Amino acid sequence: MTCRQMFRIAMLAGTVFAAPVAASAQQVEIGIAQPNLEHPYRVGGIERAKAWGAKHPDVKLTIVDGRRDSATQLSGVEDLITRHVSAVVLSPNDSKALAPIADAAKRANVPLIIFDRKLDVPETDFAAFIGSDNIEMGRVAARFVIEKIGEEGKVIQLEGTPGASATVDRKQGFEEEMAKHPGITVVSYVGHYRLQEAVAAMEDAVTAHRDVKAVFAHNDTMAMGAAQVLEEQRLEGVATVGMDGAKEGCEGVASGRLTGSVYYPTMFPESLDLAMKVLAGETVEKMTFLDTPMITKETHDTYCK
């Protein structure tokens, strides 16, 4: 096998396979199960995973696309386990709906590494977790909003996919922090982490709440959708805050369309490194949390590279 790892992409039962041209019988295979492969955060993450794979020609990466459907993702991961891959790296579409996969992996002796989003199972049911504290991310966003608008005003919250741990936790952290400021009213809408759904939700929001002083969106895609509506409605001076700090978030902050974005590490290479340590029998932390600072115009160059 050459040092350059080559990928072939094939669609089968909701699964995208990225594999070397030739695979040895002893080769390590890691399944990467994603809730979808369309969101910019996921697209960028998969590119980083492939770059990681190019540096590890002895590892075969099999990428599962959940297509934003928990049943599809569950089926794809079950297939990985049935084929006895070396390990599964999972970001669940829904924390509860994907929970049964932990027991299946445990019974098959396939190490399960959770990243990005939590799985609603005891810590004893998976090998390790790596991610950010989404509750704290919500708090960081809330404190930033308060800095921008003061102690009074109306804030629109654009929530992500209902049931996803990131949605639940970001909402919890934001609302807990905002509850300390009784002069602030938070009104929530659901945007499912998607641009057009966020635009539609924001159009409804500004129709009902023309006095909005800030928008907090659970990701940068929705924040950019909110910014679009605010521009179209000629509502100026509204603080608009997103999350993830991916390419669109960085561009939004640089252009001034976003006031800020809470940085969210991609974690794809890190989760693969963690899987390799588990497979090597190394002792690893059960729960690893990464820092999530604010990206503003002042800190843009530090986090947007």
Automatic annotation (TrEMBL):
Occurrences of domain Periplasmic binding protein (ranges): 30-265
Matching Pfam families: Peripla_BP_4
Protein name: Substrate-binding domain-containing protein
CC annotations in GO: cell envelope
InterPro entries per the UniProt record, alphabetical: Peripla_BP_I, SBP_2_dom
Subcellular location: Cell envelope
Signal peptide: 1-18
Gene Ontology molecular-function annotations: carbohydrate binding
Alphabetically ordered keywords of this record: Plasmid, Signal
Domain of life: Bacteria
Keyword Cell wall biogenesis/degradation annotated: no
Protein family according to the UniProt entry: Belongs to the bacterial solute-binding protein 2 family.
Annotated Gene3D superfamilies: 3.40.50.2300
Keyword Transport listed: no
